[in-house]
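Quick one - inputs below.
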Amino acid sequence: MMSISNSMPIKQWEKRSFWQKLTVFDAIWGLIVTVGSGYIYMSYRIYMDSYEVAIQILATLTLIIWGFYWKSVRPFILAVATLAMVALWRYGIDSELHKGDLLLRYFLESQAAFMWMSIFYIGATFFYLCDFLRKSEIFWRTATSLLWIATVSGLTGLLVRWRESYLLGDDIGHIPVSNLYEVFILFILITGLLYLFYENRYRARAVGVFVTLVISGFVVFLMWYTFHRQAYHIQPLMPALQSYWMKVHVPANFIGYGAFTLASMFGIAFLIRSGAEIHFPNGFIERVLPPLELLDNIMYRAIVLGFSAFTVATILGALWAAEAWGGYWSWDPKETWALIVWLNYAAWLHLRLTKGWNGAPMAWWAVISIFITMFAFLGVNIFLSGLHSYGSL
Amino acid sequence: MVVSWRSIIWVLLEVLSSMNLAIILLVIIAIASVIGTVLQQNQPYPNYVRKLGPFWFEVFRCLGLYDVYSSIWFICILAFLVISISVCLYRQVPVLLLDMVKFHTKIQIESLLNLQQSTEWLSIDRNTKQILAKVTGTLISHNYSWRSQDYGTHQVVAAVKGRYNRLGYLLTHIAVVLIIIGGLLDSDFWLKLKEWQGQIAVERRYLPFLSPIPQISKLQPGAIPTFRGNVMLPEGNTTNFVFLSLHNGFLVQELPFSIELKDFKVEYYETGQPKAFISQIRILDQEHLGIQPLDAIIQVNRPLVYRGYSIYQSNFGDGGSKLKLRAWPFYSDRNKWLHPLDLQGSVGNEIKLSGESGDLTIELEDLRLFNLLPELDSERKFHNFGPSLSFKLRNEVGKAWEYLNYMVPVQLEGRSFYVSGVRTSMEEPFRYIYIPSANNSPERFLKFNACLHNLDWVRTVLKQNKTAIENSSGLQRDFEFIRLNLIKLFMEGGFPAVSARAKAVVPADQLYKVTSLYFNLLEDTLAKIFIEILREEGMKVDEGVGENEEVFLKDAIFALTTVPNYGAPFYLQLQSFQQIESSGLQVTYSTGTSFIHIGFFLLVTGIFIMFYTSYRRIWIWLAVENFAVRLVLAGRTGDRCQSDFINEFLLFREILNDLLGTVPKKES
Ligand code: HEM
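Output:
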């Protein structure tokens, strides 16, 4: 290594490696997650097969590294873990307990948590809207905090629901990603969390209003699905779903969906801003929305993330299908639509990477793609039937 | 002009490997996929004709739209995609590999100045060694690897980071090729090829289990490199073949070993939903296992892999359960009903009956142990309605009715009923008849029904039970006549027949009065007959009947009105059964698996390398000209997002500013 000559001002020009950047807090984080995961393992190992233990180890590592890269996720995870632990402690081994326990009944029972989640998401939408119309630090901070709190509530709810399913019966217990109701919540949470990540990293806060509006739309659907269709009941798993693959296949899919949704929201912001730049130069929109380049950039990153996750998810699905249905690929409608979604974004990325297309056409494409993606998610369930219909509407 | 072969090939390669072609192919595949999900695939042809009409049916058939994913054109597009990507790879690989190992120190200053990022300094500081040392140190700490070259007149430091990024691109595309090849290897292409060569012929007849199959529809083990076949195996049976389905027909694929189904069972959750399908199988394979068989348990998600063959739990059904049945005639007279017919049969087989109204065949189709249906008062709660038998009744001319009979009486509003559904085509929903049960038997109702068919007997009963008015008035005979007629009408067509008759014979102004008189009379008559039947049962009826019997009578009258539309001349009661289950096994053999696995691995690795490592190059060009140092810093990246690279570049620039003590002469 070179020594720094005296004539030079001290600058941060020696980039520190990943390991050098880690601090004491990182170490503590790693320790907490490891211990927590170990505790979970000790408590629930009887329910896990060796694949599931491997998945848990993988998840633990992911969580640790995630915390290294994105510090804000640590308080988030700690909050969720604490709340879930309180709920589990209140429940004990009695699923009837929530009837008498006010803390469970009004806050921590999964249904209650999902209600709070919905309320907070709608609140966040309101404050993002305020911040959009009248830029103010207070509005924005409130909005972001609400978004975090909503996500904490939702994830806590899912974890508690996981436990609740076991309280209904050991043979009924399963990770809550097995039907449309459960994955819809997962989808909302992932979309929210990914937005928080991009907002945090790129200070693209004004896009929050678009994202939360869409999330609110999903929340409304969830309410309809909950109250009108009574979809919230925990159902035992059919034999085809009793597999460790579900734990990886489904979350990976929803990281994909969430990221694609986000990309289209950034696409909309891009289109609005680029329209405004032409028709109302130096107007309101330009003051509020981040610059085009940044929007374009985030849109690209979201699609890359979604595409990567979706590829993994589809491959995991195919591997699972080989075990459950006797073949990697059966051209079942859900599979086929997953392929269509994949091909669509593959084409998008090709044009962007090899032909250098960007700007409005690509933004339009990203926005329209969300309809293809949503058809794969909901349309297939509504209009087509096949092997994969666990979440019929 | 002479067009050389070489140039033609070159142009061809150019076209094949072009991006546009690839994207067009991707889009076509996507559109074909959409068609395949919108138009239901592999349905029986008549369904399509009905939906599309004969003209479009034919058009769609020619386009192969009923089995898009294995139609010739679809396979060709996939093959074309493979070729296109392969050509593209063939042309790119050498370039990319070379680029990966090279540092490109041999670069002209002009091209450096034209790069996305470049900055130039002129400085009088002559300490080039120190400058270079510092620069390379910084490069290393930013994970660049570098080479420097002294050209005498100038020096070049060329640095590169993430050069394996381009490998990502290669891996991804190789992966796609491998996956498609694997998929094609595992498609039914081979079957079609054999069929096209005339070596095999699809069997389209329906043949019962264990009947001989023509040799031309059989495939020896290893005849094709891949297959996916199914067989329904009853408990206790052994098979050494499976059925492959192709174009609305099937072929038989022989296996190099036998599978015996020792036992099959379904486990249920407390709610009644199925929890597990479990087959205990035994593999018999003299050649490889000797006399020692291999026992295994297979379940959904837990197949058995044996000698490269995978055996899956994929279905279940009835394997010929033995049934004890009782046919209670509906239309026969009082004397006959006392001898309901006891029958025996097994699921999957037929029972032939001959009667006055011609021969009838009962085709016993399925026995289901559990029928989990929503409870009537709530959509959410499910109730197990117990075993059910479905069967078809076919008359001499081939017309068939389909029935679904529940074995155990169903509870409705506190009463119990024998429920039987009937329909004449698969598209209709079942219409149900609710036979009230008394003492856990349909007997009372059926006796009631049979007696009502015997008008002589009805007349006798009426004679014995004349009411005072009827006796006193001279209307006695008329009343009897009307009563008998009403019963006859009612038994033929229910209440509607009665009111239709009234309409036909009574003037309009008296219609209402007469109709209600008819109905009253009819109900009174029915009650009389019913009481007589209760009396025959040994019940004390002189003081009137209990509430239960009154309700029974109401239910019975309601059921009687539905009997005329029931179709079958008898009610078939499932008395008892001995269940024999059969397990649906799927056996597959695949050659594409290893291609696909490698493909999957490369695809994921490739995508992550491609998107999450960045490819960056930085050059420092340095010369001493006219007693000054001329230094150019330039760089480029393959990333779509330049911002990270620009930040890094700015950092380097600042470092050089500090080192050289001057500001840049030119900035890009
Ligand atoms: C190549 C094979 C597969 C592909 C491409 C695939 C694709 C997908 C996609 C795109 C989703 C997103 C959720 C949605 O749209 O509803 C999904 C969800 C899901 N998949 Fe798969 N899948 C495959 C195989 C399987 C297999 C074999 C199973 C289980 C037997 C399975 C079980 C599930 C479940 C439980 C969900 C979430 C529940 C739901 O969405 O209702 N998948 N899959």
